[in-house]
Specification:
Length: about 120
Amino acid sequence: QVQLVESGGGLVQPGGSLRLSCAASRYILGIYTMGWYRQAPGKQRELVAAITNRDTTTYADSVKGRFTISRDNAKTTVYLQMNSLKPDDTAVYYCNLHWPGDDYWGQGTQVTVSS
């Protein structure tokens, strides 16, 4: 079992920045992907960005060039640096750990972009 705890959400003005963190309860081994998803009111949950155990990254088209996913050397924390935020980025952001055949989710952190 792995627990994921997100932090770093909040209220920010359009054009501002936030950095989300996702801390895993233990070292992550094997072949895996860690990602950030978001869900806005009335919409389906969507992938925002992901990083594999080999540091391959993937981004949704809507955030390319604005968001950056990374992780620490201890491979227990994943970050999402969000720049040039837009009102459309408003959502609950969830951290995900995917192993083949298994998925873990954090509790979510609210990001609100508004003036």
